[in-house]
UniProtKB/TrEMBL annotation:
MF terms in GO: ADP-heptose-lipopolysaccharide heptosyltransferase activity
Source species of the chain: Buttiauxella noackiae ATCC 51607
GO CC terms, sorted: cytosol
Biological process annotations from GO: lipopolysaccharide core region biosynthetic process
Enzyme Commission code: 2.4.-.-
Taxonomic lineage of the native organism: Bacteria, Pseudomonadati, Pseudomonadota, Gammaproteobacteria, Enterobacterales
Name used for this protein in its record: Family 9 glycosyltransferase
Amino acid sequence: MSYLILFILFLPFKLIGKLFYKKTGRNLLIQTAKIGDFVNVTPLLAHLKHSDVLISKTVLPLAKHDETIDTIFLIEEHKKSLWRKFRLAFKIMNCYENVYLLHPNSTNLFFASVCNAKNKQYLSTYTRRWYQAPLYFTATGTVEHSKNQLTVDDYLKLADRTLTWRNVPKHATRPLRKPESYPISLDKQNVIKIGLSISAGNKSKTIPAAVWKKVFDALGDLNCIYYVFGPQSEQVWLDDLHREVGEREDIVSLIGELPLEDVPFAISKMDFYIASDSGNVYIADAIGVPIVLIYGPCCIEEQRPLGNVLLIGHKEYEKSYIFEAPYYFDRSREEMFALSKDDLIKIRTFISRENNIS
């Protein structure tokens, strides 16, 4: 509601500015969610070829190495005070011909609404509130998104209603950035290299250590090396895993070792990636690494890897959505991520088949 009031306060400046608006041919994309959501925006970025973006600081390391992105605005720098909000509003008001709103929370709706662009396309989701209606009136078109529609498809439809994910591939950085140096452990030969994300940020979406032990046991005879990816804050989850499975030579920790801009290249060195619905899963998908997704409470109809992927989970537990993600569920993590004997056979078969192992 407060952003509606801000829009009303800014409206006289917007109307005066409109008198001086000229077409620029420039695009602005607004998507301030985290890593996986950013990767799912890259098909739209690729389709448009050149765009400015309003994003979260979290994904800046990826965005600054993307040749489809020109100017970057960080939401964290512009929402802390009224002065900063209005300063950005004045900066973007008359700069763009096309504005695409992909993450329509109230903050982002405000910034999209103040633009005098000729073409403004907004995503409308199941979390839309009644008081956002006046801001949606500033759009020239909307794409209605529901829980059983792929986000990546609906993002593309903002630019062209005929596009789907099959028309434009994802990317993590464009081109794929090769760092000057990287851990030599990534170059191990004659082993199956499997990347892992042992945490998904949200504790309720984090695979329990006991489940990982079952996966390791199922793959025990395949000569696998497991690379654990993640920021330093996820060391606590690795400690938990070691308590469950012990210190093992086949588990290589990359926790805190890689800046985000180096993660896509490191993942490209993997033969497989196994995780729950985490940002690195979508990086792996964009690079073409085969994935085992143990999705737990996440809705795979709305968002999932779309390449070579094995989906493991149960429909009855799908209660977490892209625009409505609870931190607590009525089932335990052990229940939501439980793996049956058949699930473990599927995982082993998937990895064996891809490596031509009988």
